[in-house]
Design a protein that fits this description.
- This protein is mainly alpha-helical and about 350 residues long.
- It contains 13 helices and eight strands.
- The longest helix has 19 residues, at about 50-70.
Length: about 350
């Protein structure tokens, strides 16, 4: 959506005309006015070492420009800041940079310290003090922690994470109101299929199937049990939000079925198995969490380059989304049934 909003085009952009943003004053001030560079680090580094991955980034950027300007001259052997400067000079448009899964390198347990340093140095050269880039938007799981690596990139971003309360909290996932609206719009005619146990007794042959309000209420309750549970507090007005996992909610609506959608995503599943095995010897704590208990955690002990004790492991699980964090009590807990099932399965794998 960011790419659709910022990307330069000579055609009229109509995709936002019926969206809520179009009702905001000055919403189109930056509409369609920039070159947008989007980098998916999962695709770039999936089969490449650090040197080849950085080369692929530069080649991808150059090739994208050449698709629209065959006379653009640039070489991937040049430094990335030089390439960005040449793009600006050629187009006379500033750049919006979107980086997806920026932290893939830090979640890859096979990546050594030198590669991590090289990666952060590359990002610093690309982003820091670059007047040709007006906005950098990076998504990922882990926050930027640079102790022992490259401190030069620290401080150039406003970070919003699973442990920080901010005025953007309600946009981290679907809110209660969002889910209720979706249930009314898409889940009012039939009760969701749920192959797993549910606290709600369901008999689809009863007259309940004819009562839309009751159907909506049942579906809403199932979605809440399975995908809700993350708590945030808006730092401006103090309003509290309970957030749902958006991917799982969307897939549930599409398939009309409750399932473990989000935890099946590959990059998260591999890492969760790794960190849960690192909790070996903490079986009592895992059992406590799985029985709706809570644990105290020191989130400031976390470093992205080292997983060294229980607090850092639990903090990683918060950022991954597998534990929820209560900022008032400084406790962690398993937020919902989908995540609980993943803990159960990973615990079984770790004991084998």
């Amino acid at each position: 959506m960011l790419q659709a909003y910022y990307s330069f085009t000579e055609s009229k952009i109509t995709v936002f005309d019926d969206k809520k943003i179009s009702k905001s004053q000055g919403w189109n001030k930056h509409l369609g006015k920039y070159n947008v560079i989007k980098l998916d680090m999962a695709n770039i580094f999936y089969d490449n070492n650090m040197k080849d991955g950085i080369g692929k980034i530069k080649k991808t950027i150059i090739d994208d420009v050449k698709m629209n300007d065959k006379h653009f001259k640039c070489n991937k052997k040049e430094d990335i800041d030089v390439i960005i400067e040449k793009i600006y000079r050629r187009t006379q448009r500033k750049i919006v940079l979107i980086i997806d899964e920026w932290d893939l390198v830090f979640r890859d347990t096979s990546c050594d310290t030198k590669s991590k340093k090289d990666y952060l140095n590359f990002l610093t050269l690309l982003i820091k003090n670059n007047e040709n880039i007006v906005l950098t938007y990076m998504t990922g799981i882990l926050p930027i922690k640079t102790k022992g690596l490259s401190p030069s990139i620290k401080g150039i971003f406003n970070e919003f994470s699973m442990t920080s309360n901010s005025h953007f909290d309600e946009y981290f996932g679907f809110t209660k109101d969002d889910v209720e609206e979706l249930c009314r719009k898409y889940l009012s005619t039939e009760i969701l299929d749920n192959p797993c146990e549910t606290e709600i007794p369901i008999n689809k042959n009863k007259n309940i199937d004819k009562n839309k309000d009751r159907i909506i209420a049942i579906n809403n309750k199932m979605i809440k049990d399975w995908y809700n549970g993350y708590q945030f507090t808006n730092q401006n007005d103090g309003k509290e939000y309970d957030l749902y996992i958006p991917y799982s909610v969307i897939q549930t609506i599409k398939n009309k079925k409750i399932d473990n959608y989000w935890i099946k995503t590959e990059s998260n599943a591999v890492f969760l198995d790794y960190v849960v095995k690192d909790l070996k010897g903490e079986e009592k704590d895992i059992a406590l969490l799985m029985n709706k208990g809570r644990l105290k955690v020191k989130i400031d002990a976390y470093r992205s380059d080292v997983i060294e004790n229980k607090d850092t492991i639990l903090t990683v699980l918060i950022h991954l989304g597998y534990l929820a964090y209560d900022s008032k009590s400084k406790n962690v807990y398993i937020p919902n049934k989908e995540i609980k099932q993943k803990f159960w399965r990973s615990k079984q794998m770790g004991s084998n």
